[in-house]
Design a protein that fits this description.
CATH topology of the largest domain: Aminopeptidase
Number of strands: 11
InterPro entries: Aminoacylase-1_M20A, Peptidase_M20
Helix content: 25-40%
Number of domains: 2
Number of helices: 8
GO molecular function, one term: aminoacylase activity
Structural class: alpha+beta
Oligomer: single chain
CATH superfamily of the largest domain: Zn peptidases
Protein name: N-acyl-L-amino-acid amidohydrolase
Strand order of the largest sheet: 1-2-6-3
Cofactor: Zn(2+)
Largest sheet: 4 strands, mixed
Shape: globular
Keywords: Metal-binding, Zinc
CATH architecture of the largest domain: 3-Layer(aba) Sandwich
């Protein structure tokens, strides 16, 4: 073990992080009871009230609240999700839910990067702010949500026919359209150095389901916030029409535009966030991430949303085997959130 001396608060934060990681809240069939019990204990040690909302049966939303000195002001919501991506079919060198820490201080577990670290960092930052005797103008809610690690939009194209040959021919037509769309997106990306893959709508053929009288193509579609969703729906309908009668589209979650959070001088949240990061010598690279599904629900109701994770100098292993986070990076993140939360929750009325 590293000889680096840690404070009692830092050791407690690491212990809480590792305890949370040991809860196997693996999508899709999750029993959240253990997560909720853990968060109730954390709320108790924080001395803060906790509410558990059951909007959908079996998918609790947990909210820990610190009431601000000016509670009439709009609150700050710190959001993370409790569920984690499956570990099956990946060759882990370590047990994915043991939260082992090696001699370098690397903590190995599913959820270290996506996003159990963030949830614990929020809580520990609030704990440290309260221990420092600071007060905040605005109320702060720490939310832990279920079901983030799901496909943001699943499009099903049904190819029905009384005989298998006709269904297969329809599948080929749809796949050809799909491949042309991907190629068009690639051309856009290659021709504009200012674009990143996150700026474009992506499609992945996730599965082909063989039903009795039809073949169903299941596409994972990650819609860019700048995409015109009505145009996208028309596109899928045109594909079906070209494949012939008996071909139709269905949606598990119909595409909608959820709006953008504008990063300009009219957004005091962005200005405060940006200025505080600059003061910490943190270089920001704003980007659109259509695969991050929690924020779209807030944007749909007109709330500004900023996604930020203080992970740096770390291999990107989200959804991969041997996901890990170094304890120093984890603790640095708590200090970063200490400053960000303090600044954002003290933004004056505007």
């Amino acid at each position: 073990m590293s000889t680096e001396k840690l404070s009692e608060a830092e050791n407690a934060a690491i212990a809480n992080f590792r305890e949370y990681l040991r809860i196997p809240s693996v999508h899709p069939n999750i029993n959240y009871d253990e997560c909720v019990s853990f968060l109730r204990r954390q709320a108790s040690t924080l001395g803060l009230p906790i509410q558990v909302y059951h909007v959908v049966e079996g998918k609790p939303i947990v909210v820990i609240t610190w009431r601000g000195s000016e509670p009439a002001l709009p609150a700050i919501l710190l959001n993370s999700h409790m569920d984690v991506f499956p570990t099956s079919n990946l060759r882990w060198q370590r047990e994915p839910f043991a939260a082992e820490m090696d001699e370098e201080g690397n903590i190995f577990a599913r959820g270290t990067q996506d996003t159990k670290a963030v949830g614990i960092q929020y809580m520990e930052a609030v704990r440290w702010i309260r221990a420092a005797g600071l007060t905040l103008r605005r109320t702060v809610h720490i939310a832990f949500t279920p079901g983030e690690s799901t496909t943001p939009l699943s499009v099903n194209i049904h190819c029905t026919s009384p005989n298998r040959k006709s269904s297969t021919e329809k599948v080929q037509i749809i796949v050809d359209h799909f491949m042309r769309f991907r190629q068009e997106q690639k051309v856009k990306l290659d021709s504009n150095p200012q674009l990143t893959p996150r700026d474009l709508t992506s499609m992945t053929l996730k599965a082909v389901k063989d039903a009795e009288s039809e073949l169903v193509l299941v596409f994972d579609v990650r819609v860019s916030p700048t995409e015109d969703c009505s145009t996208l729906e028309d596109l899928f309908s045109s594909w079906c029409e070209s494949a012939g009668p008996g071909t139709y589209v269905s949606y598990e979650d119909k595409p909608t535009n959820s709006g953008l959070t504008h990063l300009d001088t009219c957004n005091p949240w962005w200005l405060t966030f940006r200025d505080e990061c600059q003061a910490m010598n943190i270089e920001l690279n704003p980007m659109i991430c259509p695969g991050i599904t929690d924020a779209r629900h807030y944007r749909k109701v007109g709330l500004p949303a900023l996604g930020f994770s203080p992970i740096n100098n770390t291999p990107y292993l989200v959804h991969e085997a041997d996901e890990f986070l170094n304890r120093k990076i984890f603790l640095d993140g708590i200090n970063i959130y200490f400053r960000l939360i303090s600044a954002l929750a003290n933004v004056p009325a505007h």
